[in-house]
C-alpha cells in the first residue's frame, strides 16, 4: 500500500486534520489549505520502504 491516512493538528486553528500521503516516491513538500480554517499549511514528509517515516507541518506566515 502506497497511500496512508495521516493526522496532524493545523498550526493555525489547532483542529485535527486528515491527509492522504503517498509513500511511493520517498517524500514530498507541498502546500495544502486546512480543511477547517482554509489557511495554507506547508507539509513535508519522508517515506522509506513504502511507509511514511516523518511528517512536518508549518505555517506560511
What does this structure look like?
This protein has 61 residues and is mostly beta strands. The protein has one domain. It is 0% helix and 64% strand. The chain has strands at residues 3-9, 16-22, 27-33, 40-48, 51-59. A hairpin with a 6-residue loop joins strand 1 (3-9) and strand 2. It is elongated, with a radius of gyration of 11 Å. The N and C termini lie far apart (34 Å). The model has no long low-confidence stretch (mean pLDDT 92).
What secondary-structure arrangement, pairings included, does this model have?
Layout: E1 3-9, E2 16-22, E3 27-33, E4 40-48, E5 51-59
Antiparallel strand pairs: 1-2, 3-4, 4-5
Descriptive terms for the model:
61 residues; mainly beta; three-stranded antiparallel sheet; 5 strands; 0% helix
User: What is the overall shape?
Assistant: elongated
Largest sheet, spatial ordering of strands: 3-4-5
Q: How much helicity do the residues have?
A: under 10%
Please work out how many helical segments DSSP would assign. 0
What's this entry about, in short?
The chain has no helices and 5 strands. It has strands spanning 3-9, 16-22, 27-33, 40-48, 51-59. The strands form 2 sheets. Strands 3-4-5 form a 3-stranded antiparallel beta sheet, with no helix packed on it.
Amino acid at each position: 500500500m502506497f497511500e496512508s491516512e495521516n493526522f496532524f493538528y493545523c498550526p493555525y486553528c489547532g483542529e485535527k486534520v486528515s491527509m492522504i500521503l503517498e509513500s511511493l516516491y520517498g517524500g514530498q513538500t507541498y502546500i495544502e489549505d486546512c480543511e477547517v480554517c482554509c489557511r495554507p499549511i506547508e507539509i513535508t514528509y519522508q517515506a522509506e520502504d513504502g511507509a511514511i517515516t516523518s511528517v512536518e507541518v508549518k505555517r506560511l506566515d
